[in-house]
Amino acid sequence: MDESYDVCVCGTGLKECILSGLLSVAGMKVLHLDRNGYYGGESASLSLSQLYEKFRPGSAPSETLGASRDWNVDLVPKFMMANGLLVKVLVHTEVTRYLEFKAVDGSYVLQKGKVHKVPANDMEALRSGLMGLFEKRRMRNYLLYVMDYNEKDPKTWKGMDLTRMPMSELYKYWGVAEDTIDFLGHAVALHSSDNYLAQPALATVKKTKLYYESVVRFEETNSPYIYPLYGLGELPQAFARLSAVYGGTYMLNQPGMTVAYDASGKACGVTSEGSTAACKFVVGDPSYFAPEKTRVSHKVVRAICFMNHPIPNTGDSHSVQIIMPQRQTGRKSDMYVFCCSYAHNVASKGKFIAFVCATVETDDPVAELRPALALLGPVEEQFFDISEVREPVNDPSADGCFITKGYDATTHFESTVVDCLELYKKITGKELDLTEKELTQQ
Protein backbone atom coordinates (compact mmCIF):
# COMPACT_ATOMS: atom_id res chain seq x y z
CA MET A 1 0.00 0.00 0.00
CA ASP A 2 3.09 2.25 -0.01
CA GLU A 3 1.88 4.46 -2.84
CA SER A 4 0.86 8.09 -3.23
CA TYR A 5 -2.67 9.30 -3.93
CA ASP A 6 -4.47 12.63 -4.21
CA VAL A 7 -7.02 11.58 -1.58
CA CYS A 8 -7.63 8.70 0.80
CA VAL A 9 -11.29 8.12 1.64
CA CYS A 10 -12.02 6.34 4.94
CA GLY A 11 -15.32 4.49 5.27
CA THR A 12 -17.71 3.26 2.60
CA GLY A 13 -20.86 4.96 3.85
CA LEU A 14 -23.04 6.56 1.20
CA LYS A 15 -21.58 10.04 1.73
CA GLU A 16 -18.00 8.78 1.45
CA CYS A 17 -18.81 6.74 -1.67
CA ILE A 18 -20.56 9.68 -3.34
CA LEU A 19 -17.49 11.85 -2.71
CA SER A 20 -15.13 9.09 -3.84
CA GLY A 21 -17.03 8.78 -7.11
CA LEU A 22 -17.27 12.52 -7.71
CA LEU A 23 -13.59 13.15 -6.92
CA SER A 24 -12.54 10.28 -9.21
CA VAL A 25 -14.62 11.76 -12.03
CA ALA A 26 -12.93 15.10 -11.31
CA GLY A 27 -9.59 13.45 -12.15
CA MET A 28 -8.21 12.75 -8.68
CA LYS A 29 -6.33 9.57 -7.79
CA VAL A 30 -8.45 7.99 -5.03
CA LEU A 31 -7.75 5.23 -2.51
CA HIS A 32 -10.89 4.15 -0.64
CA LEU A 33 -10.62 2.04 2.52
CA ASP A 34 -13.00 0.60 5.12
CA ARG A 35 -12.51 -1.32 8.35
CA ASN A 36 -15.53 -3.51 7.50
CA GLY A 37 -15.75 -6.32 4.98
CA TYR A 38 -18.85 -4.86 3.35
CA TYR A 39 -19.84 -1.57 1.70
CA GLY A 40 -22.06 0.99 3.38
CA GLY A 41 -20.51 1.59 6.80
CA GLU A 42 -23.08 3.25 9.04
CA SER A 43 -25.52 3.35 6.08
CA ALA A 44 -25.13 -0.30 5.02
CA SER A 45 -27.87 -2.82 4.23
CA LEU A 46 -27.27 -6.02 6.21
CA SER A 47 -28.29 -9.62 5.63
CA LEU A 48 -30.25 -11.32 8.39
CA SER A 49 -27.15 -13.01 9.84
CA GLN A 50 -25.17 -9.73 9.73
CA LEU A 51 -28.04 -7.93 11.48
CA TYR A 52 -28.15 -10.48 14.30
CA GLU A 53 -24.36 -10.40 14.60
CA LYS A 54 -24.57 -6.61 15.07
CA PHE A 55 -27.52 -6.41 17.48
CA ARG A 56 -27.71 -9.89 19.07
CA PRO A 57 -24.29 -11.52 18.81
CA GLY A 58 -24.39 -15.22 19.54
CA SER A 59 -28.10 -15.64 18.78
CA ALA A 60 -29.64 -17.02 15.59
CA PRO A 61 -32.69 -15.68 13.74
CA SER A 62 -35.91 -17.67 13.76
CA GLU A 63 -36.38 -20.05 10.85
CA THR A 64 -39.77 -18.40 10.22
CA LEU A 65 -37.89 -15.36 8.88
CA GLY A 66 -36.51 -17.35 5.94
CA ALA A 67 -33.06 -17.31 4.38
CA SER A 68 -30.49 -14.76 5.53
CA ARG A 69 -29.60 -13.83 1.95
CA ASP A 70 -33.20 -12.76 1.26
CA TRP A 71 -32.83 -9.83 3.65
CA ASN A 72 -31.19 -6.45 3.01
CA VAL A 73 -31.97 -4.39 6.10
CA ASP A 74 -31.06 -0.69 5.95
CA LEU A 75 -29.31 0.72 9.00
CA VAL A 76 -30.19 4.29 7.96
CA PRO A 77 -33.57 3.98 6.20
CA LYS A 78 -34.32 6.75 3.71
CA PHE A 79 -36.29 7.25 0.50
CA MET A 80 -35.10 9.27 -2.49
CA MET A 81 -37.10 12.23 -3.78
CA ALA A 82 -37.73 11.60 -7.49
CA ASN A 83 -36.57 15.11 -8.39
CA GLY A 84 -34.23 15.56 -5.42
CA LEU A 85 -30.51 16.10 -5.12
CA LEU A 86 -29.52 12.44 -4.82
CA VAL A 87 -31.37 11.52 -8.02
CA LYS A 88 -29.77 14.48 -9.78
CA VAL A 89 -26.31 13.28 -8.68
CA LEU A 90 -27.12 9.71 -9.77
CA VAL A 91 -28.33 10.87 -13.17
CA HIS A 92 -25.50 13.36 -13.67
CA THR A 93 -22.86 10.70 -12.98
CA GLU A 94 -24.83 7.98 -14.84
CA VAL A 95 -24.67 5.77 -11.75
CA THR A 96 -28.32 4.90 -12.50
CA ARG A 97 -27.04 2.19 -14.87
CA TYR A 98 -25.97 0.17 -11.83
CA LEU A 99 -29.33 0.45 -10.03
CA GLU A 100 -33.00 -0.44 -10.32
CA PHE A 101 -35.66 1.70 -8.68
CA LYS A 102 -39.23 1.18 -7.60
CA ALA A 103 -41.68 3.99 -6.87
CA VAL A 104 -42.80 4.28 -3.25
CA ASP A 105 -46.53 3.61 -2.81
CA GLY A 106 -47.33 6.69 -0.76
CA SER A 107 -46.50 9.32 1.83
CA TYR A 108 -48.70 9.70 4.90
CA VAL A 109 -49.00 12.07 7.83
CA LEU A 110 -50.38 11.75 11.35
CA GLN A 111 -53.10 14.23 12.28
CA LYS A 112 -55.15 14.04 15.48
CA GLY A 113 -54.25 10.40 16.02
CA LYS A 114 -55.20 9.25 12.50
CA VAL A 115 -52.98 8.40 9.53
CA HIS A 116 -53.88 10.27 6.32
CA LYS A 117 -52.36 10.10 2.85
CA VAL A 118 -50.63 13.31 1.82
CA PRO A 119 -52.58 14.43 -1.27
CA ALA A 120 -50.50 13.97 -4.41
CA ASN A 121 -52.98 15.60 -6.82
CA ASP A 122 -56.25 17.53 -6.95
CA MET A 123 -58.41 14.39 -6.87
CA GLU A 124 -56.68 13.09 -3.73
CA ALA A 125 -56.99 16.52 -2.13
CA LEU A 126 -60.76 16.56 -2.74
CA ARG A 127 -61.14 13.13 -1.09
CA SER A 128 -58.73 13.82 1.76
CA GLY A 129 -59.94 13.82 5.36
CA LEU A 130 -57.13 16.17 6.33
CA MET A 131 -59.21 19.30 5.60
CA GLY A 132 -62.73 20.58 5.20
CA LEU A 133 -64.03 21.87 1.86
CA PHE A 134 -63.27 25.56 2.41
CA GLU A 135 -59.82 24.77 3.77
CA LYS A 136 -59.10 22.67 0.67
CA ARG A 137 -59.76 25.75 -1.46
CA ARG A 138 -57.39 27.86 0.63
CA MET A 139 -54.68 25.19 0.43
CA ARG A 140 -55.16 24.91 -3.34
CA ASN A 141 -54.79 28.68 -3.78
CA TYR A 142 -51.60 28.61 -1.70
CA LEU A 143 -50.16 25.70 -3.71
CA LEU A 144 -51.03 27.37 -7.03
CA TYR A 145 -49.09 30.42 -5.87
CA VAL A 146 -46.12 28.24 -4.83
CA MET A 147 -46.01 26.30 -8.11
CA ASP A 148 -46.29 29.52 -10.15
CA TYR A 149 -43.64 31.34 -8.10
CA ASN A 150 -40.48 32.21 -10.03
CA GLU A 151 -37.57 33.95 -8.30
CA LYS A 152 -36.64 35.67 -11.56
CA ASP A 153 -40.15 36.92 -12.42
CA PRO A 154 -41.48 39.58 -10.00
CA LYS A 155 -44.95 39.23 -11.55
CA THR A 156 -45.27 35.88 -9.76
CA TRP A 157 -44.39 37.32 -6.34
CA LYS A 158 -47.75 39.06 -5.75
CA GLY A 159 -45.89 41.91 -4.09
CA MET A 160 -44.25 39.69 -1.46
CA ASP A 161 -40.52 39.46 -0.83
CA LEU A 162 -40.08 35.84 0.23
CA THR A 163 -36.41 36.42 1.06
CA ARG A 164 -37.58 38.53 4.00
CA MET A 165 -41.18 37.51 4.78
CA PRO A 166 -41.37 34.82 7.52
CA MET A 167 -43.08 31.62 6.44
CA SER A 168 -45.74 32.12 9.11
CA GLU A 169 -46.76 35.38 7.37
CA LEU A 170 -47.07 33.69 3.97
CA TYR A 171 -49.41 31.06 5.43
CA LYS A 172 -51.38 33.86 7.10
CA TYR A 173 -51.68 35.74 3.79
CA TRP A 174 -53.37 32.72 2.19
CA GLY A 175 -55.49 32.00 5.25
CA VAL A 176 -54.10 28.47 5.67
CA ALA A 177 -55.32 26.83 8.89
CA GLU A 178 -53.03 25.45 11.60
CA ASP A 179 -53.67 21.74 10.85
CA THR A 180 -52.98 22.34 7.14
CA ILE A 181 -49.79 24.22 8.02
CA ASP A 182 -48.78 21.18 10.06
CA PHE A 183 -48.85 18.71 7.18
CA LEU A 184 -47.67 21.18 4.51
CA GLY A 185 -44.63 22.18 6.56
CA HIS A 186 -43.65 18.71 7.75
CA ALA A 187 -44.98 16.14 5.23
CA VAL A 188 -44.59 18.26 2.06
CA ALA A 189 -41.80 20.79 2.73
CA LEU A 190 -40.19 18.15 5.00
CA HIS A 191 -39.11 20.45 7.82
CA SER A 192 -38.25 18.44 10.92
CA SER A 193 -39.49 21.06 13.39
CA ASP A 194 -41.56 24.26 13.49
CA ASN A 195 -38.46 26.48 13.61
CA TYR A 196 -38.91 27.16 9.89
CA LEU A 197 -42.03 29.29 10.55
CA ALA A 198 -39.88 32.20 11.74
CA GLN A 199 -37.44 31.88 8.82
CA PRO A 200 -37.73 33.49 5.34
CA ALA A 201 -40.47 31.84 3.27
CA LEU A 202 -38.41 31.28 0.12
CA ALA A 203 -36.73 28.08 1.40
CA THR A 204 -40.09 26.50 2.23
CA VAL A 205 -41.57 27.50 -1.12
CA LYS A 206 -38.63 25.81 -2.87
CA LYS A 207 -39.05 22.67 -0.74
CA THR A 208 -42.77 22.54 -1.52
CA LYS A 209 -42.10 22.91 -5.26
CA LEU A 210 -39.54 20.10 -5.06
CA TYR A 211 -42.10 17.80 -3.44
CA TYR A 212 -44.72 18.26 -6.14
CA GLU A 213 -42.18 18.27 -8.97
CA SER A 214 -41.08 14.89 -7.59
CA VAL A 215 -44.70 13.66 -7.54
CA VAL A 216 -45.17 14.41 -11.25
CA ARG A 217 -41.78 13.09 -12.38
CA PHE A 218 -43.30 9.65 -12.80
CA GLU A 219 -46.89 10.40 -13.74
CA GLU A 220 -48.20 6.90 -13.10
CA THR A 221 -47.32 7.10 -9.39
CA ASN A 222 -48.81 9.18 -6.61
CA SER A 223 -45.69 9.51 -4.52
CA PRO A 224 -42.64 11.81 -4.66
CA TYR A 225 -40.29 9.01 -3.56
CA ILE A 226 -38.38 6.15 -5.16
CA TYR A 227 -36.35 3.38 -3.53
CA PRO A 228 -33.66 1.05 -4.94
CA LEU A 229 -34.34 -2.67 -5.25
CA TYR A 230 -32.18 -4.70 -2.82
CA GLY A 231 -31.99 -1.80 -0.36
CA LEU A 232 -29.94 1.33 0.16
CA GLY A 233 -26.71 -0.67 0.39
CA GLU A 234 -26.82 -0.71 -3.41
CA LEU A 235 -26.13 3.04 -3.51
CA PRO A 236 -22.62 3.06 -1.96
CA GLN A 237 -21.64 0.11 -4.16
CA ALA A 238 -22.90 1.92 -7.26
CA PHE A 239 -20.78 5.00 -6.50
CA ALA A 240 -17.85 2.70 -5.71
CA ARG A 241 -18.17 1.27 -9.22
CA LEU A 242 -18.18 4.79 -10.62
CA SER A 243 -14.94 5.54 -8.76
CA ALA A 244 -13.38 2.29 -9.98
CA VAL A 245 -14.28 3.11 -13.59
CA TYR A 246 -12.29 6.34 -13.18
CA GLY A 247 -9.31 4.61 -11.57
CA GLY A 248 -10.29 4.54 -7.89
CA THR A 249 -8.78 1.74 -5.73
CA TYR A 250 -10.78 -0.02 -2.98
CA MET A 251 -9.55 -1.93 0.07
CA LEU A 252 -12.05 -3.46 2.53
CA ASN A 253 -11.29 -5.40 5.72
CA GLN A 254 -8.74 -2.89 7.06
CA PRO A 255 -9.64 -2.99 10.79
CA GLY A 256 -6.54 -1.21 12.15
CA MET A 257 -6.42 1.71 9.73
CA THR A 258 -5.50 5.15 11.11
CA VAL A 259 -5.03 8.60 9.61
CA ALA A 260 -1.36 9.65 9.44
CA TYR A 261 -0.30 13.26 10.11
CA ASP A 262 2.87 15.17 9.30
CA ALA A 263 4.88 17.30 11.75
CA SER A 264 2.53 20.27 11.25
CA GLY A 265 -0.54 18.18 12.14
CA LYS A 266 -1.84 17.93 8.59
CA ALA A 267 -3.24 14.62 7.31
CA CYS A 268 -0.75 13.09 4.90
CA GLY A 269 -1.91 9.49 4.50
CA VAL A 270 -3.61 6.42 5.92
CA THR A 271 -1.78 3.60 7.69
CA SER A 272 -3.02 0.00 7.75
CA GLU A 273 -1.23 -3.21 8.73
CA GLY A 274 2.13 -1.45 8.96
CA SER A 275 2.13 0.27 5.58
CA THR A 276 1.09 3.80 4.70
CA ALA A 277 -0.58 5.24 1.62
CA ALA A 278 0.48 8.87 1.22
CA CYS A 279 -2.06 11.46 0.10
CA LYS A 280 -2.68 15.20 -0.05
CA PHE A 281 -5.80 15.08 2.15
CA VAL A 282 -8.21 12.60 3.77
CA VAL A 283 -12.00 12.33 3.49
CA GLY A 284 -13.96 10.18 5.93
CA ASP A 285 -16.74 9.67 8.42
CA PRO A 286 -16.24 10.93 12.00
CA SER A 287 -15.30 7.49 13.39
CA TYR A 288 -11.94 7.58 11.57
CA PHE A 289 -10.77 10.82 13.15
CA ALA A 290 -9.77 11.98 16.64
CA PRO A 291 -12.85 12.84 18.76
CA GLU A 292 -11.76 16.47 19.18
CA LYS A 293 -12.18 17.05 15.43
CA THR A 294 -15.93 16.49 15.73
CA ARG A 295 -18.73 17.09 18.20
CA VAL A 296 -21.99 15.31 18.97
CA SER A 297 -24.80 17.47 17.58
CA HIS A 298 -27.57 15.11 18.71
CA LYS A 299 -28.55 11.45 18.97
CA VAL A 300 -30.94 9.41 16.83
CA VAL A 301 -32.97 6.41 17.98
CA ARG A 302 -34.14 3.88 15.40
CA ALA A 303 -36.32 0.79 15.69
CA ILE A 304 -36.16 -1.99 13.09
CA CYS A 305 -39.34 -4.09 13.05
CA PHE A 306 -40.10 -7.26 11.09
CA MET A 307 -43.77 -7.88 10.25
CA ASN A 308 -45.86 -10.21 8.09
CA HIS A 309 -48.31 -7.47 7.06
CA PRO A 310 -48.32 -3.89 5.73
CA ILE A 311 -48.77 -0.99 8.15
CA PRO A 312 -52.50 -0.57 8.93
CA ASN A 313 -54.37 2.39 7.40
CA THR A 314 -51.92 2.82 4.52
CA GLY A 315 -53.94 1.10 1.80
CA ASP A 316 -51.94 -2.16 2.04
CA SER A 317 -48.86 -0.27 0.81
CA HIS A 318 -45.64 -2.23 0.39
CA SER A 319 -43.59 0.95 0.74
CA VAL A 320 -44.68 3.95 2.70
CA GLN A 321 -43.53 6.90 4.77
CA ILE A 322 -45.50 8.26 7.72
CA ILE A 323 -44.42 11.62 9.12
CA MET A 324 -45.53 12.46 12.64
CA PRO A 325 -45.24 16.26 13.02
CA GLN A 326 -43.94 17.46 16.37
CA ARG A 327 -47.22 19.13 17.33
CA GLN A 328 -49.11 15.85 16.89
CA THR A 329 -46.97 14.03 19.46
CA GLY A 330 -45.98 16.86 21.80
CA ARG A 331 -42.32 16.65 20.77
CA LYS A 332 -39.73 19.24 19.77
CA SER A 333 -39.07 17.48 16.45
CA ASP A 334 -40.79 15.07 14.07
CA MET A 335 -40.88 11.29 14.21
CA TYR A 336 -40.68 9.16 11.07
CA VAL A 337 -42.01 5.74 10.04
CA PHE A 338 -40.56 4.03 6.96
CA CYS A 339 -41.74 0.73 5.49
CA CYS A 340 -40.52 -1.47 2.66
CA SER A 341 -41.07 -5.16 1.90
CA TYR A 342 -40.27 -8.30 -0.04
CA ALA A 343 -41.55 -6.40 -3.12
CA HIS A 344 -38.23 -4.50 -3.01
CA ASN A 345 -36.08 -7.63 -2.55
CA VAL A 346 -35.17 -6.61 1.00
CA ALA A 347 -37.05 -9.32 2.92
CA SER A 348 -38.28 -12.90 2.60
CA LYS A 349 -41.54 -13.56 0.75
CA GLY A 350 -44.49 -12.07 2.63
CA LYS A 351 -42.32 -10.08 5.07
CA PHE A 352 -42.29 -6.33 5.70
CA ILE A 353 -39.66 -4.15 7.40
CA ALA A 354 -40.82 -1.07 9.29
CA PHE A 355 -38.40 1.47 10.74
CA VAL A 356 -39.20 4.16 13.28
CA CYS A 357 -36.71 7.06 13.59
CA ALA A 358 -36.55 10.08 15.86
CA THR A 359 -34.12 12.62 17.26
CA VAL A 360 -33.50 11.73 20.92
CA GLU A 361 -35.12 14.25 23.28
CA THR A 362 -35.24 12.43 26.65
CA ASP A 363 -33.27 10.00 28.82
CA ASP A 364 -35.47 7.12 27.58
CA PRO A 365 -35.08 7.12 23.78
CA VAL A 366 -36.87 3.80 23.19
CA ALA A 367 -39.94 5.05 25.05
CA GLU A 368 -40.04 8.07 22.74
CA LEU A 369 -40.86 5.74 19.84
CA ARG A 370 -44.01 4.26 21.41
CA PRO A 371 -46.53 6.52 19.59
CA ALA A 372 -45.03 5.47 16.25
CA LEU A 373 -44.63 1.79 17.15
CA ALA A 374 -48.33 1.76 18.04
CA LEU A 375 -49.14 2.44 14.36
CA LEU A 376 -47.43 -0.72 13.12
CA GLY A 377 -49.68 -3.50 14.38
CA PRO A 378 -48.20 -6.88 15.44
CA VAL A 379 -44.41 -7.14 15.16
CA GLU A 380 -42.45 -10.41 14.83
CA GLU A 381 -38.97 -9.10 15.68
CA GLN A 382 -37.68 -5.77 16.92
CA PHE A 383 -34.22 -4.19 17.17
CA PHE A 384 -33.30 -0.80 18.64
CA ASP A 385 -30.29 1.34 17.82
CA ILE A 386 -29.24 4.62 19.45
CA SER A 387 -26.46 6.44 17.62
CA GLU A 388 -24.60 9.70 18.03
CA VAL A 389 -24.74 12.11 15.12
CA ARG A 390 -21.36 13.83 14.95
CA GLU A 391 -20.39 16.85 12.88
CA PRO A 392 -16.94 18.30 12.14
CA VAL A 393 -15.51 21.24 14.09
CA ASN A 394 -12.05 21.17 12.50
CA ASP A 395 -10.60 23.45 9.83
CA PRO A 396 -9.94 21.22 6.79
CA SER A 397 -7.75 23.87 5.18
CA ALA A 398 -5.41 23.55 8.18
CA ASP A 399 -5.46 19.80 8.94
CA GLY A 400 -6.41 18.28 5.56
CA CYS A 401 -9.33 16.35 7.09
CA PHE A 402 -12.65 16.61 5.27
CA ILE A 403 -15.14 14.97 7.63
CA THR A 404 -18.73 14.07 6.78
CA LYS A 405 -21.65 14.54 9.17
CA GLY A 406 -23.59 11.65 10.64
CA TYR A 407 -27.08 10.68 9.36
CA ASP A 408 -30.12 12.44 10.82
CA ALA A 409 -33.53 10.92 11.58
CA THR A 410 -35.25 12.09 8.38
CA THR A 411 -36.47 9.46 5.91
CA HIS A 412 -35.28 11.30 2.81
CA PHE A 413 -31.80 12.07 1.43
CA GLU A 414 -31.85 15.84 0.87
CA SER A 415 -29.70 16.77 3.91
CA THR A 416 -27.34 13.87 3.13
CA VAL A 417 -26.52 15.14 -0.36
CA VAL A 418 -26.25 18.78 0.74
CA ASP A 419 -23.42 17.69 3.05
CA CYS A 420 -21.65 15.93 0.15
CA LEU A 421 -21.99 18.88 -2.21
CA GLU A 422 -20.66 21.29 0.43
CA LEU A 423 -17.60 19.08 1.01
CA TYR A 424 -17.08 18.66 -2.74
CA LYS A 425 -16.94 22.45 -3.11
CA LYS A 426 -14.52 22.80 -0.17
CA ILE A 427 -12.22 20.16 -1.69
CA THR A 428 -12.32 21.23 -5.35
CA GLY A 429 -13.25 24.90 -5.04
CA LYS A 430 -16.06 24.31 -7.57
CA GLU A 431 -19.81 23.79 -7.44
CA LEU A 432 -20.87 20.42 -8.85
CA ASP A 433 -22.71 21.04 -12.13
CA LEU A 434 -25.93 19.04 -11.81
CA THR A 435 -27.17 19.69 -15.32
CA GLU A 436 -30.41 17.74 -15.64
CA LYS A 437 -30.56 14.51 -17.62
CA GLU A 438 -33.41 12.07 -18.00
CA LEU A 439 -33.99 9.28 -15.49
CA THR A 440 -36.02 6.31 -16.68
CA GLN A 441 -37.87 4.33 -14.02
CA GLN A 442 -37.35 0.58 -14.00
TrEMBL record:
One of its GO terms (molecular function) is Rab GDP-dissociation inhibitor activity. SUPFAM superfamilies: FAD-linked reductases, C-terminal domain, FAD/NAD(P)-binding domain. Signal peptide: none annotated. Belongs to the Rab GDI family. One of its GO terms (cellular component) is cytoplasm. InterPro entries: FAD/NAD-bd_sf, GDP_dissociation_inhibitor, RabGDI. This is Guanosine nucleotide diphosphate dissociation inhibitor. It comes from Pycnococcus provasolii.
